[in-house]
Structures are given as C-alpha cells and as structure tokens.
Amino acid sequence: MASVMEDSLKSQKFHIVTPLLESWALSQLANMTVLLKYENVQPAGSFKIRGIGHFCQEVAKKGCKHLVCSSGGNAGIAAAYSARKLGIPATIVLPESTSVQVVKRLQGEGAQVQLTGKVWDDANVRAQELAKRDGWVNVPPFDHPLIWEGHASLIRELKAELGAPPGALVLAVGGGGLLAGVAAGLAEVGWQHVPVIAMETRGAHCFNAAIEAGWLVTLPDITSVAKCLGAKTVAKGALACTKEFTILSEVVEDVEAVDAVQRFLDDERMLVEPACGAALAAIYSGVLGRLQSEGRLSPSLASVVVIVCGGNSIDSQGLQALKAQLG
Ligand SMILES: Cc1ncc(COP(=O)(O)O)c(C=O)c1O
C-alpha cells in the first residue's frame, strides 16, 4: 500500500505559479503594455513541467515503473525532474546534437541519457521502442491531452492574476503542445476570443507549413538553430485549434530569434534559448506591429502577454557561437 507521503507526492503539482511582469523595454517597442510570463523560472527551466509533470503524476498513479521521454531538451528535463520527484527511473532519448549542458543536467536529475539520430523525430522512434518494455511508459513531449491539460494551468494563472483577458498572447510552437494547452486553457476560462500569435523559426516551421497546406505536413529536415522547436510534424490537435481560435502563424529567421535572445538579455538580464527568442521576436522584429497595420490584429490593443518559454539549452558561450554562426 502506498504511504501518505508517496500519495501526496503524486498529487502535489511540480510546477510553480510563475511571475507575470510588465517589461518596460518591450512595452516601449510595442507601443502597448507587454507582460512577460516567466516560464523559464520553472523548476525544470521551462513551461514543459506543467504538462509533463501532470502526465507523469497520472501514469505514476497507474503503476508506471520507468519513464521514457524523447526530447529536444526541455521536455526531457521536465520528465527527468518529475521522475526524480516520483522516485521512478527515467530514460531520456535525445538527438546527437544535444548540448553537453543539457546532458549534464539530465544526468544530474538521475536520468539515463541516450543520444540517437539527427533530430527529435529520430529520438522519438527509439523512445517508442523502449516504451514497449514491461512497466515502461512513453512520455509524449507535446502530443497528448494530459500534456495539454497540464499546460492549461498557465492560462488559469493569467486569469487569476489579470481578471480581464489580455489583447493577445504570444507563444512559440514546436510540436504544438504549448499551443494546444493554451487553447484548452483559453476555452476553459472563457477567453477563446483572445488572438494567439504562434511563432516559429524557418526550418522548424511545421505548424506554418500545415496551415499553408491545410493539412499536416512533415518537413524534410530541421534546419533551424532553435532545436527545441524541431518537430518535423505538428500535433494534429494543434492544427485543429485553428478552427476554433484566432491563431496567427508567423515565421521568423534564425537570425531574428537569436537577435531577440541577445536583446532580451540586455533588456531584462535573462538568457533564454532561441526557441524562446522566436516568441520574443514577435516584438523585437516588429511582427506584432505589422499584424496590426495589416488589420489582422486590432490597432488599439492595450496589452499582450508573451510566454517566456525556456532557457535551458543556452549559455553565454552558446550565444556567442550562434551569433558567429549566423553572422
Ligand atoms: C523553450 C521551448 N519553447 C517552446 C517549445 C515548443 O513547445 P511545443 O513542442 O509544445 O510546441 C519547446 C519545446 O520543446 C521549448 O523547449
């Protein structure tokens, strides 16, 4: 029989209520109040802990013996963190390009690490093979209703803090789990009319490609430096959101995402990764203003919330290297 302590570990949330702070610098640039939802300060360094923590707790209740998660970095760290909290072993499978600091972080959480293939999709194949073992459970990094249910907590927090809906929300899209979770949250709190600006980098733009085509598209390769956005195909559930919500899909170049990372570091003294730079580029590259002038967003938006999604896969040297690489 499980102890009271074990039971409480399985039900206590692993994520924290993150700060929502107005950015003076970004508000000046955008000509409206820019509120930053600081998901990079989550215990596992990104918003991923919301959905993945929830998923892991649910499967732990059902007797899972070993967690396996394929990841570009952040999902794996969230799964390893959750596994340690739950006292369950974890194996995290990542592409061979994964940075040393992410591997060290995972090992520090007590997880076994396997590196395989070029991109996340390759790691995912291996994770699904491993999950066939008895008692092992695959933790889907973005494509599962439990993941979306967990991510929806972010919108509940916004509702509790703001009361009234913001003019728009900005987020980054990889496999589309954050988008689907945010959409679920918006519906839950009655904010389904809030426009969502869904940002991707070129070379990891599977959501934009799907919207253009009208169906799911598998990119031939991931060529963006924003490896954490690097799913070749977006989740079906994310594409389905475009039917019920106002989602504006925008693609920026890698150089814009990395420039946003540098400028955000100077403006807010926080180092985030290119995946998050993609979201911040909505303001630094003037995407928001362009959408307003094109009439796709109201010209009189009072405020926008940007989800500062994560900062695990970067350090000062990594930023210098990216800048040198992109010129
Ligand atoms: C920092 C960061 N931002 C955004 C995303 C995109 O999330 P999703 O795959 O749920 O679309 C990821 C995915 O790993 C991420 O690590």
TrEMBL record:
GO terms for molecular function: L-serine ammonia-lyase activity; threonine deaminase activity. Signal peptide: none annotated. Gene3D superfamilies: 3.40.50.1100. Keywords: Lipid metabolism, Lyase, Pyridoxal phosphate. One of its GO terms (biological process) is lipid metabolic process. Its EC number is 4.3.1.17, 4.3.1.19. Its cofactor is pyridoxal 5'-phosphate. Pfam families: PALP. Residues 16-310 form the Tryptophan synthase beta chain-like PALP domain. It catalyses: L-threonine = 2-oxobutanoate + NH4(+); L-serine = pyruvate + NH4(+). Belongs to the serine/threonine dehydratase family. PANTHER family: SERINE DEHYDRATASE-LIKE, THREONINE DEHYDRATASE, MITOCHONDRIAL-RELATED. This is L-serine deaminase. The lineage of its organism: Eukaryota, Metazoa, Chordata, Craniata, Vertebrata. The gene is SDSL.
